[in-house]
Write a structure and sequence with these properties.
The complex is a heterodimer. Chain A contains 14 helices and two strands, in the order H-H-H-H-H-H-H-H-H-H-H-H-E-E-H-H. By secondary structure, chain A is an all-alpha fold. Chain A has one domain. The longest helix of chain B is centred in the first third of the chain and has 40 residues, at about 5-40.
């Protein structure tokens, strides 16, 4: 029971991370293609300025909780995914530094350098997170000792790459919508246009992914056994359709929330399908890491549950407050302040 | 080199680099918070300018501290998966609590603080930086508790082929953790104090923004002297705790080979590891080492020869790091007392001010040496007395680790250069001139 609760919490942490940092990563990927001058770039940077750091902590917490609640899965997952995880790490490092450093030098070369870093640092994590999760859904070649028999190319299989593309597209729509919320005038219009254009590609890829999942993974087994669970993919698809509807109505906040629901739904579609596995083995199902054979002791799970149930609601409360404080569009005044990116 | 050695090197690179940025975050956040509080209380514009100027340097430094911290968390899984598997029940939960309780708080409120100058009331805005300061210090507590557990494991049972939690309270309140916390925190505050004094000295020598930097200097001098003096006491108590809980580290730190009753302290020693003795031992003060270590001049100091060779840490590195760290600690106390005495009119002592500029790197070195004693001195154990470092690594290919190590060295060097370039550039530039502030 404790293990199941922790599995769900684990899924929630990842889902919230994808939902929040997803718009940063998507917008960072979109930035070079949509911003026409330094001013527009600065609007993009400042639209995520107050948030990206706190958003990223959801990833750290998701990692930390994997470590605390399922240490064996953490150990195997992180060492098996050694190269992609370190690439992810480097990408996130240069993204953060780009955000913080770009505005603190004036020369064009300095800014260009960090623009490139920011693009790479946004696109690569989006892609790699998708590749990693698709591979987790599919299972990876680990033996009974949890030792990985493969390399980076093993992970870059067609289904893995499809997952990567799906994540990039989900985040691109999400990021474009965030820009539509935060920008004014022409940039707002272009952001909305980008969101609806990419949305169509996302829809196609999402359908292909759902079909491919049938053939490449065992995720649907849980859904066939408990058809009530099918409500998760259904809600996800409805949320995706609603996103488009709200974009057409130019209700960008609503569209962003619908897109958030799509991302959370997509994550939970995978997580629920995975249950009770955390990391299926593609060599032999008996080698799979489940919530039972890789979890912490009941005492640790109980203490951690107490910590999580006390602090996560508080975290959510003050993060909502911070979004409320910076709910307005990015204005000229904001850009003129000494602290602005 | 094998994967274990490469992983150790990589962890060392990641930790040293991370800890170039963390202590300034810990200390400067408090100084900026005090400056902004004074602004709220007095309404004096200069305090606001101080909070903004030092705050800008704080933010540049903060960004790298945060992202390089993620590396450390990830590496336990990528490079030390056997360790993670064996002790994750305890160690992982401490890291997860750190993220949930402190890191979220720090990261959310730093964003609000940076961008919120015109969106919040002055009081609420000052509260944000206090929350950042508190959260980063709480964060340090959990991380140091986790590290202390590796130095002196308590509150566990070996069950199901791993270390499982049995007493959470024992882990988070063990004296080793509390002492390490106080020791590292004082060091971080000293570093921040020397940073502010050094940068202020640069401008005071040039007679730029005199009032601004005199005020900054004075505040930093008082802050530094408190913690530089406290550190001597804390370091001494922490050392006595180390004697009890990690005797091999203590023996290596002083390079004592033979178990001695009433051990003397030699002011100058050169260890000779190969021959299990010291090449040079001069200026010995009788019984002083035993007195310092136990508070008893007849105390028995256990020598390295009591343990088989394979259970001793590398002596020379541990010894030199410890010696130089202690010497630097004494030097900081001396300099900060002088700075405090001169706090009212520091601009009259240009020679001393110049010295202070050159002192900026010293606390960084002292902290790095301190971590060297802590981590190298713990070897060959990853968890003292429980798990050997050589049993803890992941089964990843050495080539893979070599490649990532090279990538770390390159990326971190470039980031370090960019960061210190920006810090120096902005520190030299000084605060934003008054008319431009309220654009």
């Amino acid at each position: 029971m404790l293990e199941t609760i922790w599995f769900l919490l684990w899924g929630i942490l990842w889902a919230v991370y994808f939902m929040l940092d997803g718009f940063d990563l998507g917008l960072g990927t979109l930035a070079p293609f949509i911003a026409r001058n330094d001013n527009e770039k600065r609007i993009i940077y400042n639209s995520m300025g107050p948030f990206w750091d706190a958003n990223e902590v959801w990833l750290i917490t998701a990692g930390g909780v994997t470590f605390a609640a399922f240490p064996t899965a953490y150990a195997v997952m992180f060492s098996a995914l050694y190269t992609p995880l370190l690439l992810l790490l480097f990408a996130l490092i240069i993204r953060a530094v780009a955000l913080e450093f770009r505005s603190k030098g004036e020369s064009e070369g300095w800014r260009k350098l960090w623009d490139v870093c920011h693009f790479v640092g946004s696109f690569v994590p989006a892609l790699l997170l998708g590749v990693a999760f698709a591979n987790i859904f599919k299972g990876i070649p680990i033996d009974q000792e949890g030792i990985f028999h493969g390399n980076l190319l093993t992970l870059l299989n067609p289904y893995g790459l499809l997952g990567g593309i799906l994540f990039v597209l989900l985040f691109l729509v999400h990021g474009a919508l965030w820009l539509a919320i935060k920008a004014e005038g022409d940039l707002e219009k272009r952001a909305a246009k980008a969101a609806s254009g990419i949305w169509l590609i996302l829809l196609i890829v999402a359908v292909v992914f759902l079909v491919a999942t049938w053939f490449a993974t065992g995720l649907y087994a849980n859904y066939l056994n408990n058809p009530i669970l099918l409500i998760i993919p259904v809600v996800t698809v409805l949320a995706l359709l609603a996103t488009r509807l709200f974009i057409n109505q130019r209700a960008f906040w609503k569209a962003w929330f619908a897109s958030s629901l799509t991302i959370v739904g997509a994550t939970f579609f995978g997580v629920v399908g995975l249950y009770p596995n955390l990391l299926p083995s593609s060599l032999n199902p008996a080698y799979s890491l489940t919530i039972y054979n890789s979890s912490s002791s009941p005492l640790t799970l109980k203490i951690m549950l107490g910590v999580a149930l006390t602090f996560v609601p508080i975290v959510i409360a003050y993060q909502i407050w911070s979004y409320y404080v910076f709910r307005d569009k990015v204005t000229k005044d904001d850009l003129a302040s000494d602290e602005a990116y | 080199m094998d994967a274990v050695t490469l992983s150790r090197l990589q962890f060392a690179v990641a930790t040293y680099f991370h800890f170039l940025f963390v202590p300034l975050t810990l200390g400067l956040s408090i100084l900026v918070a005090i400056m902004e509080t004074k602004y709220v209380r007095t309404g004096l514009e200069e305090y606001k300018r101080m909070a903004k100027f030092w705050g800008k340097l704080f933010v540049i430094n903060f960004a790298i501290g945060v992202v390089t911290g993620i590396t450390l968390e990830f590496q336990f899984g990528t490079n030390w998966s056997r360790y993670s598997k064996y002790v994750g029940d305890i160690f992982g939960s401490l890291l997860a609590i750190e993220a949930t309780v402190a890191f979220f708080l720090e990261s959310t409120f730093i964003g609000v603080w940076i961008f919120g100058w015109n969106k919040l009331s002055p009081k609420a805005h000052a509260a944000c930086i206090w929350i950042v300061a508190a959260a980063s210090n709480i964060s340090a507590y959990w991380i140091l508790t986790a590290n202390s557990w590796m130095q002196h494991p308590v509150g566990y049972v070996i069950r199901n082929g791993r270390a499982e939690l049995s007493d959470f309270w024992a882990i988070v309140t063990q004296p080793y953790a509390i002492l390490m916390f106080l020791h590292v925190l004082s060091a971080a505050y000293i570093l921040a104090g020397f940073f502010v004094m050094g940068v202020s000295a640069y401008h005071l020598i040039r007679k730029q923004e005199l009032s601004f930097f005199k005020r900054s200097f004075r505040m930093a001098a008082t802050f530094t002297v408190i913690f530089a003096l406290a550190e001597i006491l804390v370091g001494d108590i922490h050392g006595k705790e180390m004697m009890k809980s990690q005797p091999t580290k203590a023996a290596a730190a002083e390079s004592v080979w033979e178990t001695t009753k009433g051990a003397p302290m030699y002011l100058f020693v050169v260890p000779d590891e190969a021959n299990e003795r010291n090449k040079v031992e001069i200026l010995g003060i009788p019984k002083l080492l035993s007195w310092v270590a136990f508070g008893d001049s007849e105390g028995v100091y256990r020598g390295l020869k009591e343990w088989p060779k394979e259970e001793r840490p590398p002596v020379a590195i541990t010894f030199w790091s410890f010696r130089i760290m202690v010497a630097l600690g004494m030097l900081f106390a001396l300099i900060s007392v002088i700075a405090w005495l001169k706090r009212k009119n520091p601009e009259n002592s240009p020679g001393f001010l110049k010295l202070l500029i050159y002192c900026i790197p010293l606390p960084y070195i002292a902290l790095a040496l301190g971590w060297t004693v802590t981590e190298v001195g713990r070897q060959p154990w990853i968890v003292y007395g429980m798990m050997k470092t050589s049993d803890a690594a992941s089964s990843v290919a050495a080539a893979q680790v070599g490649l990532s190590l090279a990538a770390f060295v390159i990326v971190y060097s470039l980031l370090g250069i960019a960061c210190f370039y920006l810090l120096i550039k902005n520190a030299r530039k000084g605060p934003v001139p008054i008319p431009a502030l309220d654009r």
